[in-house]
Design goal:
By secondary structure, this protein is mainly β. The chain has strands at residues 2-6, 11-15, 19-21, 28-29, 32-33, 41-43, 48-51.
Amino acid sequence: MLAIARDISAKAWFYCERNRLGTPPPRSFKGEDLDGWEFELIALNEVREGGDANPLAP
């Protein structure tokens, strides 16, 4: 999986070859269908990250 995060001033990416879905997504909530939901991925391999953001910049 490749995840890319963009901001006005920086970009970052995260890559992991093998992932697993942590919690199954709900199909409905209180009888209403969902258009989207949050999900959790569990990395089964090393996560590589990069980008042009400087975490030490003030």
